[in-house]
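Ticket closed. Logging final result for Cation-transporting ATPase.
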Amino acid sequence: MSKTDENNKSKRVGPPPIRHGVDYVNPEEEDQMEIYGYRPHFVHTLLTWTAILMTCGLLRLLFHWKPHWMLTCTHVKCPLDCAKKVLLVDQFLQKYTEIIEHLSSNSLKYQYSQSKESLEVPSNNSNPSHSLVRPQPNGVFELTNTLTFFENKKVRYIWESEKGQFFKVRGLDSDIYCSYFYQQKGLIIEEQDSRRVLYGENAIVVEVKTILQILVQEVLEPFYIFQIFSLLVWTLDEYYYYAACIVIMSSLSLTSSVIQTRRNQKQLRDTVQGVDTVNVCRGNDVYEEIESSRLVPGDVIEVPAYGCVMQCDACVISGNVIVNEAMLTGESVPVTKTPLPNTTIDEQYDTKEHAKHTLFCGTKVIQTRYYNNAKVKAVIIRTAYQTAKGELVRSIMFPKPVDFKLNRHIHKFISVLAALAFIGFIYTVILKAMRGTPWHKILLKALDLITIVIPPALPAAMTIGVVFAQSRLRRSNIFCISPRSINISGCINCVCFDKTGTLTEDDLNFAEVVPVNTDKNKFESAVDVLTELEFGPLMVCLASCHSLTIIDDNIIGDALDQKMFAATEWQLEEPHVSDTTKYDLLAPTVVKPKNKDLGLEVGILRQFPFSSSLQRMSVITRLSNGSEFEVYAKGAPETISVLCDPNSLPDDFTDTLMEYTEKGFRVLALAYRPLPSMTYPKMQRASREDLEKNLQFLGLLIMGNMLKPETTPIIETLLSANIRTVMITGDNMLTALSVARDCNMIQPYHKVVLLEPESLGHLDNDEEIPLAIRGTVFARMAPEQKQQLVELLQELGYIVGMCGDGANDMASLKQAHAGVSLSEAEASVASPFTSKTPNISCIPILIREGRASIVTSFGILKYMALYSLTQFFSVIILYTPACQAFDQLNRKPPPSSLIGITPLSSIALQILLVAFIQVIAIVIILLVAFIQVIAIVIVWQQYWYRPHKTSDPEDLKSHDNYAIFASSVFQYITLSVVFSKGAPYRRPIYTNRLFTTSLVAMSALSAYLVIYPADSIAEFLELDVEAIPLNFRVLMVLLSIAHFILAFFAEVCLKQYLL
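Final structure:
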């Protein structure tokens, strides 16, 4: 095994264990948070604001960055029942401070009377209720006089005094029996108003801040505050040109940031925000048209016939609804939503289990189907940010922090630079004080050294690689809604793939049908032309057991269903709802053979949609001239065979199934059952479980599932890059195994072992780990099991990518470090990345761009660090001789004093404090310091050298200054080259023409300034070059070339072959 014991013991993904004595909200859930109560303390508040005034507001600025510090300084801990504010700590140690609010019936009455006076509400308007309610189990709403709550991340938490805890306000999706929805007849206005106080307006509001608000928010960030501090220091020290350049650059950066932030806010608002008019039931089939923002859980609404976008989550209780869920799942195939079966009234409602009966916010209603002019009705279960769409929007607005080593190391690196700056500050103060420099000059120079060591432009520079990578991904039709995930994608070492539609083609090809010979109890010869099949249960099953529908004269539905139905050469009709007498039933969908007698027409009276957890679907039909109903089912052979009468299964069932699955075919089993004594009302009320049993096995449907042409080379590319590939599919194990072999995910020489555990969740830890480490194909996986596997791989230390194309993959796409949804949509909130190219070629592109981005980030980090340290060394070296030149008591020749133990140990100390993890970076730092020391030692040995002696501290013109300038000016160029290494993660540096041109131009300009600058330029730069011979100037250039060769050798050669 390649994973160490340390990886095996890695921390479990999910909320940390409950600690005794600590209060929690959402315990043992994904958003579990610790909660602490606080109340104001007058003395603490007074002392805190006194300190804020004494620090001229700097302390308040610190509290702006750390609000919980303000809370702990002005408040004291207390029990939650008497708290005025709460401190929330999530599993990522993020802290949030929220204010507790109180509502009472009396306050509502006052607010209503005030609004009525100000708005002149007409007297004939119905007064809203002044009562407050709190939710209880089983959909009960209890009257209360007071409501205590706080909000965090758009979620409201209310206080339960009986339990002494805050609880999340939930909709009607938990602790609710299915029978509850059929009991709902509509809310009167007073009930609706009371619930609206509890739940708030039904609107996903994305605040778009004004330009001034965004500007102030950006300027108050630590990065810009430090820049303002640096500009102030540079201006006081008369660095006007440099300060002006930084002002221009910062202004451009700030303007771009403000524009981009506001554009993103507006785009998100325009994407998710919407208000519509809805017909809501007030009881007794009385309907009122209201704005969707006024809806609350429990309202009964009429679903419009077509063309609307759902503004809430609702459970269908009558009629059928055809919707497009592309915005949520990335799948543009219409989905039929059927009423929650009233036979499951004793079941508890579950959003995942009953997803086929639930309309989700943000999905588009294409068409509704209803009978006898009955309305298509649904009961609202969630509104606003509680909806599926609201949860996705919240995940965008409040993303989980990315636990990435680079981010952690940047903070450590800045801490090291801060320590280095502090040492340089002390060093400068001591040297300047020894020479008798005025205190304000000492402070200015020491502060200037801090702005040198800590690069103000570091945060902005670190985002450059991500910005360009995102731009290149967009050109490759890969769209990203989480730019922070780009760097992580460069570290992916395991990629999980869905099979159907991802590795294989979306469109399954009909291959053949294998009927059963009931007399011999064996399979007959396969039939590949269905028109040759006799009319009977098998033919009716193929023609009717599907969820196809007609929209704009086109048959729409699942690709498998379409191929199966097309092979029958039957036709599908959906009579108008007014035609209710054709079968003496309620207008069914009709299938019938083309150009055949009408007596063969089959009406589809009831559908049980495909369920990934049940792995089957079924329909109830009746012939137009028939007298009994029949139920037809199709699904996974393992599932259907269990539901069939064992005597109807052929003796060669297992052998035939293995024969086809080993060849990579998609195999579905077909079965049926006559319902001779069942009446229509009884049929409509019968439960799915009662109908789908004692079935008669009919045969096997064989579908060809061909690999996409891009699949095999991409899998080989990933394997050659030592990236593990895993297949996660809901299909048969042998079919998946065949596909894995075809695409070389499993090599011919691999020994294959088949295991059939019940589920990942039921395995012990000792069983899960080997399975996750060695497993390549995971078949018959439900959506939640796919998510469990991705989570388990993350626990083992893998950086996991996931690529899928459907709703079944949504949970695992969001769980993975980098999920890629194959969708026609430009952006899908189902995953961080969306590829419009419908194959897995996007995966190596994403990994390459991620690697390029992270290498660029490392290069920029190293360059900015060495850039600052180069300046730091230059200033320290120049400060040291300047101090000794003014030392009248102990004047010594510069060479003997500057290469002594004290100055060199000081320089070595600064170098050792630079906390680079990579050994090569330390070598390059040593080279920078070494070259500068060599340059100044050489100049001291020259006969024409004049020590810098002046009574004017502003006179910087000296041979020392020239030597340091001549060596350091080339070092910046050297560092930019050696840290811009191309292969294996980026293209060669010369392919970036703009960058290469700028390097050549800067090198030529630097050589000109060092070797033979014009007198006016030398005077402007305060370079003393009059007495320096030409051969020494050339020597400085040669010294810089030597530094370039050594630095390039250290970064490229040593790093590649030794580390």
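Residues 211-272 form one domain. No further action required.
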